[in-house]
Design goal:
It contains 16 helices and 5 strands. By secondary structure, it is mainly α. It has one domain. The strands form 2 sheets. Strands 3-4-5 form a 3-stranded antiparallel β-sheet. A two-stranded antiparallel ribbon has the order 1-2. β1 (about 30) and β2 form a beta hairpin. α2 (about 10-30) packs antiparallel against α3, α5 packs parallel to α8 and α8 runs antiparallel to α15 (about 295-320). It is globular, with a radius of gyration of 20 Å.
């Protein structure tokens, strides 16, 4: 039994995340004791079943297969990002969704996993560090980033930077170059400020001082802090969060679902979910340390960075430690495309594990 669970450890961990996600979504859709927008609950359930199918398909494909389709996969995602800027649906002032035959999805989510596979393949080709290949990796990063920033979606665009950084570090780029580049980037923040949208500037200012606009841009983060703080050690109990049930907390089924969890399950529940993400990260790093080839190492590490960045930024922003950038909490926030891509990543890790664990 233990061998079976260990063999499919990534899938079982995904099931735990999905179970927590459905519980939190059901609670987040409550208003004064009644479930509102039941269709969202059913949609997420359907997306969960689809995601499990995606996991099993990807996990049963030898991960070496993705070497042959890495570049076409990456280029296809670039085409989708261009299309969304031309014919994409506009919602909440952003053009991020494609509607193809009634099937609505976010190409930026697809671009993340295609980028992970693409850059892992590109930098696994040379056997030693090369500035030429480093430049190619940087250009591969800039293309999707610029297109996603145009939507605009700053949070999603930022995901590409830590993946690039981790990949180049493993590739052999000196840590001093990475730190120097980061410092140069920080020094350019005043210049970058002028290119931000008005709502992005307001989010940064509100992060520094939520009372600057307490009923506007600062309202969500203030209510999120209240929800998390009021949960105490043990929480108020499932379906008993007042900030949630009385509709004080906006976007509680998407970006701020962690606030619902912390209010209802308290400090213990919040730490428990953080521990599960830490477990996923450690499992992925362990897999990377035992991988049999460079492509598998790059792939495993990049997927780990993907999950780490999403979970760290989401939990930090809902707790008030980072500006609100609109990144979902993997597996738990509502969103079909994000869920499918998260399970796609788990499937890739499982595929690598199938090779590494032979003989266990």
């Amino acid at each position: 039994m233990f061998k079976f669970i260990y063999k499919y450890r990534f899938f079982f961990l995904g099931i735990v995340f999905s179970f927590i996600g459905m519980l939190m979504l059901y609670s987040a859709l409550q208003y004064k004791g009644k479930v509102i927008y039941q269709s969202l609950l059913y949609k997420q359930l359907i997306w969960t079943l689809i995601s499990w199918c995606v996991f099993w398909i990807v996990s049963n494909i030898d991960y070496h297969y993705w070497k042959g389709v890495a570049i076409p996969f990456y280029l296809f995602s670039i085409v989708l990002l261009v299309l969304v800027l031309i014919i994409g649906d506009v919602r909440y002032g952003a053009q991020r969704w494609l509607n193809i035959g009634g099937f609505i999805f976010q190409p930026s989510e697809f671009a993340k996993i295609s980028f992970v596979i693409g850059i892992s393949y590109i930098l696994s080709i040379p056997r030693r560090f090369s500035w030429t290949w480093t430049l190619i990796a940087i250009l591969m990063t800039l293309f999707p980033m610029m297109l996603i920033l145009k939507e605009p979606d700053l949070g999603t665009a930022l995901v590409f930077l830590p993946i690039l950084t981790a990949t180049l570090f493993i590739f052999g780029l000196n840590l001093r170059w990475i730190i120097s580049t980061a410092l140069v980037g920080l020094s350019m923040l005043p210049f970058i400020w002028h290119f931000l949208k008005d709502y992005q500037k307001k989010r940064l200012l509100v992060f520094l001082n939520p009372d600057l606009d307490p009923l506007g841009a600062g309202y969500t983060i203030t209510q999120s802090r209240i929800a998390i703080g009021s949960g105490g050690i043990w929480g108020k109990g499932w379906l008993s969060g007042t900030q949630n049930r009385l509709n004080f907390l906006p976007e509680r089924h998407t970006d701020f679902i962690f606030s619902v969890l912390a209010e209802e399950w308290g400090f213990i529940g919040a730490v428990g979910v953080i521990f599960l993400f830490l477990l996923l990260i450690l499992m992925g790093l362990d897999l990377a340390s035992r991988a049999k080839d460079r492509f598998a190492v790059f792939l495993a590490v990049n997927i780990v960075v993907y999950f780490f960045f999403h979970s760290f930024v989401n939990i930090s922003m809902t707790s008030g430690f980072m500006p609100v950038v609109g990144l979902p909490l993997p597996f738990i926030s509502y969103g079909g495309t994000s869920l499918v891509i998260s399970y796609f990543g788990l499937g890739l890790l499982q595929s690598i594990a199938n090779s590494v664990d032979k003989g266990f």
